[in-house]
């Protein structure tokens, strides 16, 4: 079972109806979904502060999902949807673009280049009816690798249960666990990048714990890792002095 983020413009009843139709079919196919306007109603985005919180919440929604299904209708793809596509692409989530718009401005069916390139596949649909959507969604879902959701520390399910919060958890399979760990490492590193001095130790501690878990999972020899680290230090140095490359290296003509 995959968790799918349903992206697209959501500011009119017609737009929300299309997104809800897609979400309904995904659920009928046994998938979990994240539907932005249901998770966070648009009327809650009134002030700049509320909008910033909504933005962060929706990005975390994308992080929690295995894949994205996006509506790409309009003379150009909705600006907010483009941000969602870009973020999902950066997270390496597969993206299925759906377009019912009959306009064909160019060889990419009127879709701007960056949105087009972010999608794993773009499929035309005649309507948002199940008969037209299901044959498009099923093959895409069959190719989605399911290892989404938030990886939490081992005691968290028990803690939440004791607090009266019954949330669903599952054990990842041994085959998918390395990918889950590496993705959590990357997400934690991104949070560390955004964290200010004084509060970043929490993220550093999480990174250390995740690295230790990956080392144990892979049965890497710590002495071998230390030897590789020291060998790189002898050849290329460390990172203490803070050199940044300000230009692309030029190829030698020799």
Please explain how this structure is put together.
The chain is α/β, with parallel strands linked by helices. It folds into two domains: 3-142, Rossmann fold (3-Layer(aba) Sandwich); 156-231, no CATH class. 49% of the residues lie in helices and 9% in strands. The protein contains ten helices and five strands. The longest helix has 18 residues, at 177-194.
Corresponding CATH architecture of the largest domain: 3-Layer(aba) Sandwich
Which CATH top level class of the largest domain fits? Alpha Beta
The whole-number mean of residue pLDDT values reads 87
CATH topology of the largest domain: Rossmann fold
Contiguous runs where pLDDT drops below 50 for at least 5 residues = none
Helical stretch count? Answer: 10
Radius of gyration: 22 Å
Distance between the termini: 56 Å
Major sheet details: 5 strands, parallel
Structural class by sheet pairing and helices = alpha/beta
Q: How would you sum up the global shape?
A: globular
Question: Keywords, please?
Answer:
single chain, 254 residues, alpha/beta, Rossmann fold, 2 domains, five-stranded parallel beta sheet, 10 helices, 49% helix, globular
């Amino acid at each position: 079972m995959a968790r799918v983020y349903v992206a697209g413009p959501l500011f009119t009843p017609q737009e929300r109806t299309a997104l809800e139709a897609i979400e309904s079919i995904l659920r009928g196919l046994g998938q979990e979904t994240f539907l932005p306007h249901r998770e966070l109603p648009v009327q809650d985005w009134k002030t700049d502060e509320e909008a910033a919180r909504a933005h962060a919440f929706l990005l975390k929604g994308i992080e929690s999902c295995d894949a994205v299904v996006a509506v790409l209708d309009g003379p150009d793809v909705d600006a907010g949807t483009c941000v969602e596509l870009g973020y999902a692409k950066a997270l390496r989530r597969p993206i299925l673009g759906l377009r019912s718009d009959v306009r064909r401005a160019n060889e990419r069916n009127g879709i701007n280049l960056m949105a087009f390139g972010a999608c794993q596949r773009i499929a035309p649909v005649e309507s948002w009816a199940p008969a037209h959507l299901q044959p498009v969604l099923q093959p895409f879902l069959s190719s989605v690798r399911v290892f989404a959701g938030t990886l939490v520390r081992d005691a968290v399910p028990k803690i939440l249960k004791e607090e009266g919060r019954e949330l669903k958890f599952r054990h990842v399979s041994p085959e998918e666990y390395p990918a889950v760990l590496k993705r959590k490492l990357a997400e934690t590193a991104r949070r560390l990048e955004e964290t200010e001095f004084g509060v970043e130790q929490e993220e550093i501690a999480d990174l250390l714990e995740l690295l230790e878990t990956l080392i144990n999972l892979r049965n890497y020899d710590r002495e071998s890792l230390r030897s590789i680290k020291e060998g790189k230090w002898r050849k290329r140095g460390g990172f203490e002095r803070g050199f940044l490359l300000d230009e692309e290296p030029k190829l030698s003509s020799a």
